Amino acid sequence: MSVFRLGPVAWPVRLRGLLVPLVAGALLLTVAGINLGIGSSHIALPDVLWTLLGGGDDRMRGIIFDLRMPRTLTGALVGVALGLSGAIFQSISRNPLASPDVLGISWGAAVGAVGVLLLSGYRGQASGLASGVGVPIAGLAGGVLAGALLYLLSWRRGIDGFRMVLVGIGIAAMAANLVYWMLTVGDVDDAARATTWLVGNLGDVGWESVWPTALALVVLAPVALVFGRTTGALQFGDDTARGLGVRVDAARGGLLLLAAALASIAAAAAGPISFVALATPQLAARLTRSVQPPLAASMVFGGLLTVAADLAVRLLPGGLPVGALTAVLGAPYLLYLFVRKRREVQA
Q1: What are phi and psi of 300, to 5 degrees?
Q2: Buried (b) or exposed (e) across 16-50, using 16+ Cβ within 10 A?
Q3: Most exposed of 92, 277, 289, 298 (fewest Cβ within 10 Å)?
Q4: Are the C-beta atoms of residues 129 and 135 closer than 8 Å to each other?
Q5: In whole angstroms, what is the distance from residue 100 CA to residue 161 CA?
Q6: Count of CB atoms within 10 A of residue 255's CB?
Q7: Mapping DSSP to helix (H, G, I), strand (E, B) and coil, where does residue 62 land?
Q8: What sign results for the dihedral spanned by CA atoms 318, 322, 324, 328?
Q9: Nearest 5°: phi and psi at 290?
Q10: Low-confidence ranges of the chain (pLDDT < 50)
């Protein structure tokens, strides 16, 4: 650890905790640049950079800014939101299994979004305005309500991390079955649209997905980073956190709802992309050698993982959705976490 001095003020700085996010950020920019260049009209990375700096012809600017930029930016923003959400959940619960996927937040968002998708077609006259703009709003509302339900059902004179994970698994199971029931009774074409949304896909997003997600992150991400000290105190247990001046119940409840909102915003933009929120906080903690998931590094790694997964699916044949690839890669990691947690409990 080094000490950074600015005049009479000095504060400790962990160089590894600073360098790892910077390197990951550079990788994110590189992968995003490559992602902007690939497609039916291949554009080399130097030409992409030249166009981003104001050069290039009209055709090249149209391809990059109108066609490919919204997809890449949405992927990066969604990954940032998921990484930050997962880091908060795992910090306040002190459990690496805690993520929006496992705790039912993503399925809560799916209940709202799928409900609107089915109502807008099967009973379109009843949905009205919801058929046009209601899917993101309903997804956000469903995820936040699932977060509130998780907090209420987990609270027993405080929140225990293990109990919160068990309650979250129950909420996820109930919400998933509700989604499957709606798909069963809904119109076949609407159910097909809803199933496509459930996988998590960046293929059909546009600038209308970029701006709301970016605006939400501009508001919520600084709030989360400001409360980074609080998440650090909660990892030592409730008594120690109270000794450090933290109002434990209020802080944990507020952070839980904040993490739920971040995950719901990501789901509203591109559907529930699995396992990014679960894996990136632990990856960031290991690379920075931090005792808890670092918030800023988890954000960067979330964006990097999501954009890299999107680049991979674009290079693969068959038009695989990005959520399908992250689910395939994340399932073995989830099994690894279950086995490791079981060994820790037995020890």
Answers
A1: -65, -45
A2: ebeebbeebbebbeebbbbbbbeeeeebeeebbee
A3: 289
A4: no
A5: 14
A6: 20
A7: helix
A8: positive
A9: -100, 150
A10: 122-128
